[in-house]
Every structure is written in structure tokens, then in C-alpha cells.
Amino acid sequence: MGEAGFVETGDFRVAAVVLAAGSSRRLGEPKQLLPFRGATLLDATLDRVRSFGLSQTIVALGGAAPEVRETVDLTGCCVVDSVHHTEGCSSSIVAALAAIDAAADGFLLFLGDQPDVASSTVEALLTATATEIAVVGYRNGAGHPFWFARSVFDALRGLHGDKAVWKLLESGLFESATVAVDADVPLDVDTRDDYDRLLAAEASRSEISWHADDRR
Fold this sequence. Notes:
alpha/beta; 22% strand; globular; disordered N terminus; two-stranded antiparallel sheet; 7 helices; seven-stranded mixed β-sheet
């Protein structure tokens, strides 16, 4: 493994599931379609996930699905409809499970509103695929992406609600691991303040990059 696009799994296949079905009630508009990096927030997330070179990318849509299909570049993605998305993200995971390639050994679970997951984080998480469930241990807490082996799929199909995957992780029913990375939890967007913070962080990165280029 190396840079983004690094996955060399051989006979071991890892799918990506991107949760993008939320109704954005706290934000007041579809967060999937918020302007970001010249396109939309979901475009930025999908671009990042595609760069990891996983065997399959599945996107679960629900709230604003027609507008997302019309606006977001879903090239190379298997799109599933989470018809019960208002009941929590577990319903979106259940919808995605049916679309995972039968040859896949498991999947990484990403949030559709979290565009800055680092390639080094995914690379570190993939070292834990011998376990059944793995989560990233950031400097300021645990967070996505998650790893789920195929042996966990039946349990995932029985989940309900928003925090059910965390409860499954904490249940002790499956072999699990926390993979430590030297970074903070990447920003995600639930409120207008979250979006403002994401834009501010992006502007700061752009300014740093501009000054670095100017010094060359």
C-alpha cells in the first residue's frame, strides 16, 4: 500500500458503503448538495472514497434522492435507495448490504458528509481487517470509517436506529479493534455551524497551499 488509490488486496476484497440518505433536518436543506470544492459536499466525499481504490462503492440515498441523482456525479457507484432512512442510519446500512458483491470479504463504512478522511487513515484501518469490526481511534475520539467483516452482516441486518453500529461494536459479540491514527476526527456536517467550520478549514488549507506555492 502507498498513496491514495493504494489498495492492493489480491483475493481479499473490500467494498465501500457511503451513507448519504439523511434528511438534514437540523440543517434545513439537503447537506448532500451543499456547495463544496466546486461541486457538492457529497461529490467531494465520493471523490475521496473513489481514490482509495476499493473494490466497490455503494451509496445509500434517501432524503433528497431525486435531486442528488440529478446533481451529484455518481459515476462508478452502485446507488441504493434507503426507503426507511428516517428511522436512522441502520436502515441505510441494511439497504446497502444487499448490494455488496458476494465476493467481498467486508466493507468500510463512510459518512457522506465527511469529505476529508485521509488515505493514511484508510490504509491503517485496512491493517485490522483480520478482526470482525474495527473503528478508527482519532486523537479526540473514535470515529468513521468502520470496518465490518462478512461474518457481521447478519447482525447488521437486524440493527435499528442511529447509534446501533456503536452498540454492536460495544456488545462484545464480535472480535473488534480500534486503530489509532495521529489525527483529529474529520469534520462532518449536521448543522449550519458545522458547514461554516468545514468551509473555514478548507479556506485555511487553500491559503496554506497558496503560500507554499508562492515560496517555491
